[in-house]
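Methods — Computational structure assignment.
A single polypeptide chain was analysed. Its primary sequence is given first, followed by the predicted tertiary structure written as structure tokens.
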Amino acid sequence: MKYCDDLVPDYDLTAEASKTIKDTAFSLCRRIFYRKKEDGAECVCSICGTRRDLTKTEKRVLQASQTCPTCHRRVKPSTLENYQSREWVIIDDPDTDGLNGFRVRYRWSFDKGIDAEIYRTLYVKGDDEYRRDCVKTLSAMGECTTGGWVKCRRSWYAAYADFYSFPDTARKTRRRYYEDMNINLKSNQVQFVKDYALSREQIGYIYAFDLKSIRDVLKYTGYIKRNPIVYMNPVLNVTYLDYLNRNDIPLADFRDYVAECRTLGFKLDKPKDFRFRHDKYADLVVQKANVVSDELIRNRVKSMTEFKDGDILIRPFHTSAEIIKCGKTLHMCIGTYVKKYATGQTDIYCMTVAGKLEGAIEVCGGALIQARGDRNEDISKNPTIRKWFRGLRKENNERNRSLSQATA
């Protein structure tokens, strides 16, 4: 490789290339720097370039939400007064005979903000390669975009973090996402949320547990960080959040417990033995579903026939427990077919040889979908299964033909 600057013509970044490097620098340096003061802190955002003073409460909110209080983009709080980074940005320039590689070297400080130097690291022309030094310097790259709230419907607001960092199409998707959440904050919640830059997770907890002040939000910061929000119905109160935090119960597990209580008609409580109660209720929910499925299955098997060939017996399943036991015995996932079988979406049969369970067969839409033995071994080419399926298909064709003649 040659290092001859005089062999390389002057090169000016195009507007598109400059924007690419600028956007890349923003995405790589997504930080907010702050230094402590007696009454709070002074912070500077590396994205929007805004410099502002924070109270002690606002500083705690910033550390918890990791959201810039000005542009509302997600940032990483840092106490480093100087931050330096080197990253690669590759740009394909159609005006030259090859690739132009650039290295963006930028430095952040409280005094200067962002200073970026763009180095061209490789220039290709024919069979020769050349190295060149700095080609452009950019300063004060921060651009402030006012963030805050979007009113998606008349009845509620959608707060957002890093909303403006997405293109227009993604913004529309994000707006639809908030509409799907259907958050209806109370007037006092809207007020204190508007006063601070909060993350989507914190907004979700405010809604899900009816938090009434910023102190409640900060009190459960650790739990919120460990447990991404899952939306529950109905909305609970802060005593449930305190219970989950004290016992370190995952929010997703408690959401399932709430659903189980509603399904079984039990009163929602805060059990001391949560894991035992959760598992017990889960079994009861399965049993309740199986009772309904068993009634449907009993009605279905009346119209399904058995097939016997020597010691081999192929017959429909009679109960949901029988299906689940078959899955455990043969180490397969047929237990998940209970609902589909009960509602008539598919037909499943068991095959026994001399009274011993050997396989399970699925038939749907007049086709043999699968036949599986122990550990999902394919037994669909078994001569007895093929003989049974030919007879089943012939029987179904004759039944359909007689039905069509009767309705003609």
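Note: The chain has 13 helices and 16 strands.
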